[in-house]
Write a structure and sequence with these properties.
It is built from four helices and 13 strands. It is of the alpha+beta class and about 230 residues long. The protein has one domain. Strands 1, 2, 3, 4, 11, 12 and 13 form a seven-stranded antiparallel sheet that branches. Strands 5, 6, 7, 8, 9 and 10 form a six-stranded antiparallel sheet that branches.
Length: about 230
């Protein structure tokens, strides 16, 4: 029994040493992860106007990422930002292969931008100023319905991407209970809301647009870009 005691003590000391090392590694991992996420969120905030921006590293250990000098994937979430002067926009982006040494550069970005109903109301209101303007989404039809003047004016529009421009194209219209003819609807189209989506942050370019219950959802992709040097203003 006496001979076993020294071995038991040595075993306990070894376990305590391992536990202490794990605590140090976990603390270092957490600290590095938070530092990288905070840095990237700050760089992204410079390119996005207002709102809240947060970043999150993928599942790979931050210690390994820092040792290699790059992060494989990093998620970026932004709420209530202004994008190309459109307010109340949400951005969900995935940054690919973020370089940590010699600047913060990404090889590519995939993003989803959501324009809330309030964003769409302001966008349409710049083209046609009517009191009480509101919007409802119809995902199954892929259209947006705008109502004004207490429901006396009703316009159905379909969002389209025309190159790098987002356009709301009128499909039908009713004013004071009277349906407008095709030629009159086309005239409304000449005044329909359109917003250029060129020169977006992270080098993003629009690829597709769809109507969702939450608003208008735009899918975008960007190539290599430097997070530290915005290419365009919002």
């Amino acid at each position: 029994m006496r001979r076993l005691l020294p071995r038991t003590r040595r075993g306990r000391r070894a376990l305590l040493g391992i536990a202490a090392a794990l605590v140090v590694v976990i603390a270092a991992e957490t600290s590095l992860r938070l530092a990288v996420e905070h840095k990237v969120a700050g760089l992204a905030r410079r390119q996005l106007d207002g709102g809240t921006v947060s970043a999150s590293i993928g599942s790979a250990p931050a210690l390994l990422d820092v040792a290699r000098g790059h992060v494989g994937t990093l998620s970026l979430d932004a709420d209530h930002v202004r994008l190309r002067r459109i307010p109340d926009v949400s951005v969900d982006a995935t940054l690919h292969d973020l370089t940590l040494r010699g600047g913060h550069r990404v090889d590519g970005t995939d993003a989803t931008v959501t324009l809330a109903p309030s964003s769409l109301t302001e966008l349409a209101g710049r083209a046609v100023r009517l009191p009480g303007l509101s919007v409802t989404t119809s995902p199954q039809q892929g259209t947006l319905s705008f109502d004004a003047l207490g429901g006396l004016a009703h316009v159905v529009e379909r969002p389209e991407l025309r190159g790098d421009d987002l356009s709301l194209v009128p499909q039908s219209a009713t004013v004071f209970g009277r349906s407008l003819g095709a030629s009159q609807v086309r005239q409304l189209g000449d005044r329909s809301a359109s917003r250029p989506l060129s020169g977006l942050p992270f080098g993003l370019e629009p690829r597709a647009v769809r109507v969702a219950p939450t608003g208008l959802v735009i899918s975008l992709h960007g190539g290599p870009t430097d997070l530290g040097h915005p290419e365009a203003t919002n």
